[in-house]
Design goal:
The protein is an alpha/beta fold. It has 2 domains: about 150 residues, Rossmann fold; about 70 residues, no CATH class. Helix content is about 40%, strand content about 10%. It has 9 helices and 8 strands. The chain has a 6-stranded parallel β-sheet with strand order 5-4-1-6-7-8, with helices on both faces. The longest helix has 17 residues. The radius of gyration is 17 Å and the shape is globular. The model has no long low-confidence stretch (mean pLDDT about 95). Bound molecules: 2-phosphoglycolic acid and magnesium ion. The site of 2-phosphoglycolic acid has 13 residues, from loops. The site of magnesium ion (MG) has 10 residues, from loops. Keywords: Carbohydrate metabolism, Hydrolase, Magnesium, Metal-binding. It catalyses: 2-phosphoglycolate + H2O = glycolate + phosphate. Specifically catalyzes the dephosphorylation of 2-phosphoglycolate. Is involved in the dissimilation of the intracellular 2-phosphoglycolate formed during the DNA repair of 3'-phosphoglycolate ends, a major class of DNA lesions induced by oxidative stress. Its EC number is 3.1.3.18.
């Protein structure tokens, strides 16, 4: 907590915005299962958890395009095929979140902040339709004042638009807010919004160490911030 308070002149932030996948929840096992089902429907080999981990972070449509391309760079994927594959992926993913787990320390940090009266928001690139059910299923249903999915607004992280929207809703200035995330999309969106940013070391960042993005703080678990 000492470290967190140093970012806010001895106080706590008034608003904390959280990324979801790779920050609060280890969701890759279920995302990979749905990707592999989508590929199997096309008689294509499974991608597997290790590769899918590096493809998560830019929302479902980009994840599916990366899976069709077999790598991070997905130019050249046919739009019609990508659209059909996205529909299959979304249908498969909706069915089963049983392998998704909340990271140790995440629930504790959220309830600590709630107890201190800090406003909380989820700002994820994951499609909005999955959020209420997934959070409820994993015991985080009452955690957030705002839920912003990747398709809630016209822009997605690393665009700062969703963060700026939440700041406006909350009536909080950027320097009184904090963003907590795992990927370069999070750090870059927070920087562009002027919001201090904490990164977690255990998440998904396209196979690169998140330290290279120079977050204001880097932690190995969220309860290190309590
Ligand atoms: O769905 C994704 O690609 C990533 O979601 P996130 O923004 O919560 O990491
Ligand atoms: Mg993430």
């Amino acid at each position: 907590m000492q470290a967190l308070r140093t970012l806010f002149a001895g106080e706590l932030p008034q608003l904390v915005m959280f990324d979801l996948d790779g920050t609060l929840m280890d969701s890759v096992p279920d995302l990979a299962a749905a990707v592999d089902q989508m590929l199997a429907l096309r008689s294509r080999p499974a991608a597997g958890v290790e590769r899918v981990r590096d493809w998560v972070g830019n929302g479902a449509a980009v994840l599916v395009r990366r899976a069709l391309a077999g790598g991070l760079h997905h130019t050249g994927v046919d739009d019609t095929e990508a659209q059909a594959a996205l529909a299959d992926f979304l249908r498969c993913y909706a069915g089963d979140h049983s392998r998704t787990t909340v990271y140790p320390g995440a629930a504790e940090f959220l309830s600590f902040l709630r107890g201190q009266g800090v406003k909380l928001a989820l700002v994820t690139n994951k499609p909005e339709r999955f959020l209420p059910e997934l959070l409820g299923e994993k015991g985080l249903g009452d955690s957030f004042d705002w839920l912003v999915g990747g398709d809630t607004l016209p822009m997605q992280k690393p665009d700062p638009g969703a963060l700026l929207w939440v700041l406006q809703q909350a009536g909080v200035t950027a320097d009184q807010a904090l963003f907590v995330g795992d990927s370069r999309n999070d750090v870059r969106a927070a920087r562009a919004a002027g919001v201090p940013v904490v990164a977690v070391s255990y998440g998904y960042n396209h196979g690169e160490p998140i330290a290279a993005e120079n977050p204001d703080l880097l932690v190995d678990s969220l309860d290190a911030l309590i």
